[in-house]
């Protein structure tokens, strides 16, 4: 019986280490996929927001250029 206990302990430790390693690999895989998916979603949202606001910024820039030209004309007349 004394000879079986160390062997059982080694097998148990090996199995528990293997399961903990597999658990950490699985956890890293899940978290990695969550990280990648969230990164892709964030990039898509950013591009969508930039695409949506680009015409607005262009309009704002055009308006500011028009207003600058109007102000210049008023100063040139006076």
As a percent range, the share of helical residues equals: over 70%
Instruction: Decide which structural class fits the backbone.
Output: mainly alpha
Q: Uncertain runs with pLDDT below 50, 5 residues or more?
A: none
Order of helices and strands: H
* Quaternary state of the chains: single chain
Q: Please, how many helices?
A: 1
In total, the number of strands is 0
Strand content: under 5%
Strand count, sense and barrel status of the largest sheet are: none
What's the overall geometry? rod-shaped
* Integer average pLDDT: 73
The end-to-end distance, rounded to whole angstroms, is: 110 Å
Rounded to an integer, what's the Rg over CA atoms?
A: 33 Å
